[in-house]
Amino acid sequence: MGLYMTGLPFSPQRLKLYNWHKWAGVAVLALSLLRLLWRLTHRPPALPVAMAQTMPGWQKAAHHGMHHLLYVLFFAVPLIGWAYSSAAGFPIVFLGLWQLPDFVPVSKALAASLKPWHQISAYTLAALALLHVAAALKHQWIDRDGLLTRMSLRN
User: Fold this and answer.
1) Of residues 45 and 67, more confidently modeled
2) Predicted TM-score (pTM) of this structure
3) Hey, where are the domains in the chain?
4) CB neighbour burial string for 40-61, b if at least 16 within 10 angstroms, e if fewer
5) What b/e string do you get for 95-112 counting C-beta neighbours within 10 Å, with b at 16 or more?
6) In the prediction, which pLDDT does 6 show?
């Protein structure tokens, strides 16, 4: 939606999509907080012994690094978007009912510097999510180590 809406001419449709985009960002932020709280209070099981013994060290490091980066971006993308919207002087009214406080003061210069960071962090999140899915499918179809079964059982 972010890519599509920015290419539209100024119109009621574009404004509606921007609002929906902001609502999705607020929802992602709230769900990310709930997920982080769950994760901090419910530790995942250790990798099965056979998997832990055969998985190369770089894959274990990538596994942990990927999860940490995803969590950082789950928060960074919507927070940067909120800051950008605030700096640009456009309030976020969640579901058209609740106006969120401005995250930063109105500043065209700040908005201009935040806009590319929101875009870069969103693209990075999308790329890492695709890479994460690809790695899970590699474990399922190439390694045949039961990782997807383990993931479905623990959640």
Assistant:
1) 67
2) 0.87
3) 2-154
4) eeeeeeebeeebeeebeeeeee
5) eeeeeeebbeeeeeebbe
6) 79
